[in-house]
Amino acid sequence: MDSIKLAEKYNKKAPINKKKSKLDKHNEAIKYLLDNNHSLLSVQNFLESECKCKVAYSTLRDYCNRRFNNKSEIEKDAAKFEAIKSHCATLRNKYFTEEEKTNIKSIAETIDYFVKKSFNSNTKNTPDNSVNVSNVTDSDDVISDYAKVANMRKENKFGWKISK
Questions:
Q1: What is the pLDDT of residue 161?
Q2: What is the pLDDT of residue 159?
Q3: C-alpha span between 83 and 85 (Å, rounded)
Q4: CA distances from 11 to 7, 15, 56 (A)
Q5: Where are the domains of the chain?
Q6: Which of 39, 96, 123, 140: disulfide with 100, CB 3.0–4.6 Å?
Q7: How far is CA 118 from CA 43, 94, 99, 123, in A?
Q8: CB atoms within 10 A of CB 153
Q9: DSSP conformation class of 125
Q10: pLDDT tens digits, residue range 60-102?
Q11: For the whole model, what pTM was predicted?
Q12: Quick one: angle between helices 57-68 and 40-49, nearest 10?
């Protein structure tokens, strides 16, 4: 007997056991809190303090993703990236000259371009065409959001591949 026939025979005999979660009895409360804009951390705190149900954050996250079809963090990040990409394309079309459009192609380069444009006299361009903000620190009260972005970009905290 081949394996498919054995599997069909087994399927008829063995009952299908859906794995139960300890969160199933709190399903309605979890859904209610999420629908009312509570974070997963808030829901986790509620379960532990009010329902005496200790659950790991990752377990709760996975449960909510399965039960309530929430977008995963990766999908949310991808949507944010697409929004940034679209906004950069709009900015390129609106503010770039034809020469700049051919020289500046990536999202990171587009952001760098606008960061450089908005810096004050404390900053200067370096020979490798990146922004030098070494004289501005995160502790300075006068640091602009642009300087923070430039520092993050310089340290590659965005995770973008830097092309030379």
A1: 52
A2: 58
A3: 5
A4: 6, 8, 34
A5: 3-70, 74-154
A6: 96
A7: 42, 16, 20, 10
A8: 19
A9: E
A10: 998 988 888 655 666 777 778 888 888 888 888 888 888 888 8
A11: 0.36
A12: 110
